[in-house]
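Let us practice reading a record.
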Amino acid sequence: MPSAQREYRDRLFTFIFGSKEHRDWTLSLYNAVNNTHYTEPERIAITTIREVLYLGMHNDVSFLVANGMSLYEQQSTYCPNMPLRMLQYAGNLYERHVHERHMNKYGHKLLSLPAPKLVVFYNGQSEAAEEEVLRLSDSFPEGARADIEVRVRMININPGMGEQIKAACVPLREYTWLVEEIRRNAEDVDVLLAIDKALAAMPADFEILPYLLAHKAEVRDMLLTEYDEAEAMELFREEGREEGRDQTILEVAASLIGELGYTADKAMEFLRVPKAERSRYLSML
């Protein structure tokens, strides 16, 4: 399997819906999610966070439209901690929003801020509801009275799920078709060939096809990395439930380093090994 560069790279979802070149697709997704009918994509200000260097902690698409701040992320593995992550992303965006507009958050005047809308598009292979709300309060001790709540809307876009939203956003429907076609192909051939076969089989009338073909090398690289990372995380989750957790972490970390080009530190971050335990694992790699 070819090694992937561990520099920052978009997911395909971000590449399609976070592109300033195709704000019409971004607006189409926004309208589908919110059941709105805005028609001026040029007014969208895309503000995607790019400081996070590894895939698992990157919020894929955020933008400002109609006085709202939408944070959209695609996930191929189920993550109940999205409210915490979205809280962190929103904090970063609010800090940028205040700084760029020279607002005084310490002053007596009440600041006017865009309202957050937090959405996760889930297309992993683990079973999940068609739609559910993930809450930060689910992480708190039972009975705790908290002053902070974060709600994240998780929309399942796997085949047979989220069909109303996919019907309203053609690029999203086409994106999910491509992901599913790659999965079917990967049952019989290696992942790289599965990606190429899926791109070749994509119907000629798909809106996103010319864009994907114009950036074919980048698209293949993104999809290959996404697929490998999802496989590594699923392996870690399944094997981590059994005895020999240390050996499982070491084996998956070695795979991330050897096959995907991760640094040892990034492998520990990806596997969410607590910082206090990392030096012990690093000494054994």
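A brief commentary: The first helix runs from residue 12 to 17.
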